[in-house]
Specification:
The chain is of the alpha+beta class. The protein has helices at about 1-25, 45-60, 65-85, 235-240, 270-285, 305-320; strands at about 30, 40, 95, 100-105, 105-110, 110-115, 120-130, 130-140, 145-150, 150-155, 155-160, 165-170, 175-180, 185-190, 205, 220-225, 245-250, 255-260, 290-295, 300-305. A 5-stranded antiparallel β-sheet has the order 2-13-12-7-8. A hairpin with a 2-residue loop joins strand 7 (about 120-130) and strand 8. About 25% of the residues are buried.
Length: about 325
């Protein structure tokens, strides 16, 4: 059993590489043309063909006109199903979908958008990755559908999908049409936050800077220029609507907590442990509404707030000396 599996794997890999050289590089949006769609009978299709052969021999042996009629009728249905199976993929347009970042140990879920530009529905479009079925979608005429890949992400860094196949067994499962697609999709994997981490180094405070929220009882003291990381709540939107520059209201007595988490200040024995602790500090600071930044060898991210800033800092951690 091992030898046939290895032989089958060798044949499959050789066919994939041949198809890639034949098709050339793929770029989104990618329309599946008929020249790149392959089709072969399935196991059910082969059994169906043997059954038709038996029926044909029986009809010839007994000179049975009804047997001939049923045999040729079923053969015609088989040929029509081959046409529809191939056409179920032809003209389908593919493009990269969204992929939300995840933490190490979770499942990355990059998406693929399939668009049906034809005037007929497409049924049972199946996506395969490494010989594992990922999704089955139906697409109505002129509509889009997003199929999701499920990929384990045990380590931080990038999870990439560089090759997958799109297949169809529609309508009767007698034939399988498929093509290999080489669209690169990726998902960022953040370090896994430490379950327990020592307290971060002493933070520093500033007056009139960025913060997530205020107590509401500070005294207004004027305007200043906007700086990245300032809270949208403190922006003078009315002045901005009148055509003035983006300004921020200052309040006397506002004490803003800021953190700059330095990789060199993190305790720990290894790179991954220290990044996990940094990840925990950043998440906790974001949850507390405090401004934070991160400092890594060769990377300095100034303090800021907000979800976009959080993901930006965590992305630095994810890609810092990321394992291949």
């Amino acid at each position: 059993m091992i030898f046939p599996q290895r032989l089958r794997g060798l044949i499959t890999d050789t066919a994939r590489e041949w198809a890639r050289r034949r098709q050339g590089p793929d770029t989104a949006p990618l329309a599946l043309r008929r020249q790149r769609i392959y089709i072969l009978p399935t196991a059910h299709g082969l059994v169906f063909a043997l059954m038709l052969l038996g029926m044909l021999l029986g009809a010839m042996n007994y000179n049975n006109n009804l047997g001939f009629a049923i045999t040729f009728l079923l053969a015609g249905m088989g040929l029509i199903s081959m046409y529809h199976c191939h056409g179920n993929l032809e003209g389908l347009e593919l493009s990269e979908g969204s992929c939300e970042p995840v933490f190490a140990g979770e499942t990355a879920r990059p998406g693929l958008v399939l668009e049906n530009t034809r005037d007929r529905a497409r049924y049972g479009i199946t996506l395969w990755l490494e010989n594992q079925q990922q999704a089955i979608v139906d697409i109505e005429p002129g509509e889009q559908a997003e199929a999701i890949f499920n990929i384990p992400a045990p380590r931080r860094g990038r999870v990439t999908v560089e090759r997958f196949s799109v297949a169809s067994l529609f309508p009767f499962g007698l034939f399988r049409a498929w093509t290999w697609v080489h669209l690169r999709m990726e998902c960022i994997v953040f370090p896994r936050p430490a379950d327990s981490a020592p307290p971060p180094p002493t933070s520093f405070t500033d007056t009139g800077g960025a913060q997530q929220s205020g107590s509401g009882d500070e005294d207004y003291s004027g305007l200043r220029d906007y700086r990245p990381g300032d809270s949208p709540r403190h922006i003078a939107w009315k002045a901005f609507a009148r055509g003035q520059e983006l300004l921020v209201r200052q309040f006397a007595g506002t004490r803003v907590v800021k953190h700059v988490f330095d990789f060199n200040d993190v305790p720990g024995n290894g790179l991954e442990e220290r990044l996990s602790i940094l990840c925990r500090w950043i998440i906790d600071a974001h949850a507390a509404g405090e401004a934070f930044g991160v400092k890594l060898p060769g990377v300095i991210e100034e303090p800021g707030i907000g979800k976009a800033h959080l993901q930006h800092c965590l992305t630095h951690l994810a890609l810092f000396n990321a394992p291949k």
